[in-house]
Amino acid sequence: MPVFDEKHEELEHYETMMGVPRGRLAVTMDMITDAMALVGQHGVYCQSTRWPGKPVMDIQMVMKNLTDAKELIQSVMEEIKNKS
């Protein structure tokens, strides 16, 4: 479980503030946000020839999936919060 070693401080911080499940989801959200930033930067350099000003289709698909994953995680965090 290298992610638990690599993200130890962040996990400890969020788990203390929010509890273990929500804390881990919060760290996951941060990681997805970082991935979105990296993909977004890549999209600046990989522009579509069909639609100038838009990233190529695979980058658009990756961003959509990351955005959707983030939305699902947020809904789980709210559900956990409301049940406690």
Which percent band covers the strand fraction?
A: under 5%
**Quick one: how many beta strands?**
0
Low-confidence spans: none
**SS-derived structural category:** mainly alpha
Radius of gyration: 16 Å
Count of separate DSSP helical elements? 4
Give descriptors for this structure.
84 residues, mainly alpha, 4 helices, 0% strand
What does this structure look like?
This protein has 84 residues and is mainly α. It has one domain (20-83). It has 4 helices and no strands. The chain has helices at 2-6, 8-18, 20-45, 57-83. Helix 3 (20-45) runs antiparallel to helix 4 (57-83). The longest helix is centred in the last third of the chain and has 27 residues, at 57-83. The radius of gyration is 16 Å and the shape is elongated.
Please provide a brief summary of the model:
The protein is an all-alpha fold.
